Amino acid sequence: xxxxxxxxxxxxxxxxxxxxxxxxxxxxxxxxxxxxxxxxxxxxxxxxxxxxxxxxxxxxxxxxxxxxxxxxxxxxxxxxxxxxxxxxxxxxxxxxxxxxxxxxxxxxxxxxxxxxxxxxxxxxxxxxxxxxxxxxxxxxxxxxxxxxxxxxxxxxxxxxxxxxxxxxxxxxxxxxxxxxxxxxxxxxxxxxxxxxxxxxxxxxxx
Length: 206
Fold this sequence. Notes:
By secondary structure, the chain is of the alpha/beta class. It has a single domain (6-190), classed as 3-Layer(aba) Sandwich (Rossmann fold). Strands 2-3-1-4-5 form a five-stranded parallel sheet, with helices on both faces. Helices cover 50% and strands 12% of the residues. It has helices at residues 17-28, 36-46, 52-57, 72-81, 85-99, 112-116, 130-143, 150-166, 188-200; strands spanning 6-10, 31-34, 105-109, 122-127, 179-182.
């Protein structure tokens, strides 16, 4: 079993960071954690009346496999609870323990390289234009049966960007030393390849 090696992948909604993170984890044989799911779980619980901090403190690993965590309503709720300092604090230990597990780990989110794992061995910041990201998210929603317009999704994406980038606590921004990958005009394969090259440059042979 290899020693801990943390890959931090940050970026805005629908930038492709999740797809890239999963592929990078599979390539290196590392575990993967979509940290946004933690906030989506908390957000989903607030929609049924549970207080945000209580929901964060009660988080269990099994909660991450719950259904309906990818709806627009849950996404907005997740973005709102993510600005609550006590919620973020409650989820820090969970993320940091996962990051340093033996065998390596890839975590994707919005503050992995800046706050959760500033000492990560490799850091990536995956981005794309708001219009590009909105179109990707709109296609995903339409394919899963949601009745939503592209303009509505674009407004939602921009609102999340505004909230994520300008919040007082752990704003979304590239971490120091992060390799930036703009996926606006890249194929999935090319984006994954660029990420693997960037990580490989930071990783010593076993």
